[in-house]
Amino acid sequence: MPATNTYDAIQSYTLTSATNTVTFGSIPQTYTDLVLILNLGSTPSAQLTRLRFNGDTGTNYSDTKLRGNGTTAYSTRISNDSNATLNEFAYASTTLGKCNIIVNFMNYSNTTTYKTFLFRANNADLGTELGAGLWRSTAAISAIEVSNPGNNFLSGSTFSLYGIKAA
Amino acid sequence: MAVSSFSNSGIKSGSKRNKIWDQSAVENSFFSIATNTATGSTADVTFSSIPQTYTHLQLRMIVKNHTANTNNTRIQFNSDTGANYSWHELFGDGASAGSNASISASYMYLGNHPSNAVASAFAVYVVDILDYTNTNKFKTVKTLSGYDLNGSGVVGLRSGNWRSTSAISTIRIFPGADSFGQYSSFALYGIKG
Amino acid sequence: MVKIQTVTVGVSGASSIDFTSIPQTYTDLKIVASLRSNRSAALGDTPALKFNGSSANFSNRYIFGQGSGTPTSGADADSGLGTMPGPNATASVFGSLEVYIPNYTSANNKSFSTESVMETNATANYMVMMANLWSQTAAITSISIFSQTSSTILQYSTATLYGIKKA
């Protein structure tokens, strides 16, 4: 089988005003993996970034993280949460552009597996994190909700989704 | 939700979900080569006759064990089972951060994958192999991998080296013991450089 | 994801690998590099960046592993990118470096994500994950990769610059 060209841009959002939640809806089910790129600011204060899938508000999210805050490298875990938390201290700052997050969702459309995703969260003023997240659902991911709990993402924050299709 | 701006280029050229030639686009560099999916218990997965027309390779995988044992995912190149590999890792297990190494090993380690105790949970891997056809270099591999089981798990950055200047034509992926569980999936991509 | 340029270092080595006149038509940039330097009597060396000809106004926080023991975390006010092998690493081994720069043309600070590893057939080895920041609002029009110790980047080192365009 000849190799096929992939890594496609699916959807993107650039905020034109402060916004609490951005949702990627009706995600095409024709890819194998998704890559989400976030470049964020937060107002009125720095804040973490959360994900939900398909509107699931149940305590079906968990993760294991490796974290470095500039002083100590350590590891933490969150279990039975109602959101996936991408950055426990590499926050979106009040200055735009200081926080970037890269998320790889593997086999997101597979309806027999729970959904595991790898993420890197970075803010050079605060720290760097690597995480493995789990959404305990076999549903295909059709929507991704990115939220800023209690605050808003700054105008100018960007959210970009890409699809990768395996042969 | 406040009004967000969409890419104007997407609006001007049609659906954002379709690639449409805008008269300035150049060739995409990321290509899917092949995929293997474990259908039951699978002892190992091999990609052979890998095209030599790319510059880098990337493996994207979801993996679990066929039995009730956690295990590790290993890789060998060109059927080399000799002590020609080294690997290192930097990881967190939810309680502590650590590092490990192995030298003069007969395989390269990519990370741990979970047992079948949580039937639907898999480890995920993004494995990058740069300059895989270069006959002047040994082959270095960089991996981000991890899994979470809602109460256990591990995530880490792994590196490995195959001490051979041969171009990589075959990749074998296998567990440390047992076999890969059903729905484990291994996708190989070529990247032009 | 589109290849913009590849540089391969020739027989004389190089003081830097340069990407100039970077098209401003993409959203993000990605650099993958396979590097080795001749830093005197060293296991590893530190690759570093210049944007638009300057290595000023950079900062980072990182997690650093050495092959054994507990990883460490630190912070620097420089453009370092982690690690690449030096002469005391196993011969013919080159490192693996990936840098992802979102929104490189924006008028905001430029945060970016880095993972770099070297390898050697010995327990002692270096691996680094970083959160990086360039505190400038100019668009990135050129990138240089060089040795932070002013060592030579050796023959067969390569670096490729990719552009990624959002939807």
Structure class of chain B: mainly beta
Span between termini of chain B: 41 Å
The secondary-structure element order of chain B is EHEEEEEEEEEEEE
Beta strands of chain C, count = 13
Number of strands of chain B: 13
Cα gyration radius of chain B (Å): 19 Å
> β content of chain B, as a range?
over 45%
What average pLDDT do the residues of chain C reach? 98
Uncertain residue ranges of chain B: 1-25
Number of helices of chain B: 1
Q: Secondary-structure element order of chain C, as H and E? A: EEEEEEEEEEEEE
The major beta sheet of chain C can be summarized as: 8 strands, antiparallel
Q: Helical segment tally of chain C?
A: 0
Q: Main sheet of chain B, how many strands, which sense, barrel?
A: 8 strands, antiparallel
Percent strand of chain C equals: 35-45%
Mean pLDDT of chain B: 89
Poorly predicted tracts of residues of chain C: none
Strand order of the largest sheet of chain C: 1-13-3-9-10-11-6-7
Nearest-angstrom radius of gyration of chain C?
15 Å
Helix content of chain B: under 10%
Q: Could you explain how this protein is built, in words?
A:
The complex is a heterotrimer of chains A (167), B (193) and C (167). Chain A is mainly beta. Chain A has strands at residues 4-5, 8-15, 21-24, 33-40, 42-43, 50-53, 61-68, 73-81, 84-85, 99-105, 115-123, 127-135, 144-147, 152-153, 158-164. In chain A, strand 7 (61-68) and strand 8 form a beta hairpin. Helices cover 3% and strands 47% of the residues of chain B. Chain B is globular. With 193 residues, chain B is mainly beta. With 167 residues, chain C is mainly beta. In chain C, 0% of the residues lie in helices and 44% in strands. Chain C has strands spanning 2-8, 16-19, 28-34, 44-45, 47-51, 58-65, 72-76, 84-85, 96-101, 110-117, 127-134, 143-147, 158-164. In chain C, the strands form three sheets. Chain C has an eight-stranded antiparallel β-sheet with strand order 1-13-3-9-10-11-6-7, with no helix packed on it. Chain C has a three-stranded antiparallel β-sheet with strand order 2-12-5, with no helix packed on it. The mean pLDDT of chain C is 98. The chains are: A mainly beta (167), B mainly beta (193), C mainly beta (167). Chain A binds chain C through residues 7, 9-12, 37-39, 66-73, 90, 95-100, 102, 120, 122-128, 130, 156, 158, 160-162, and chain C through 1, 27-28, 59-64, 70-75, 100, 102-103, 106, 108-113, 115, 129-133, 164-167.
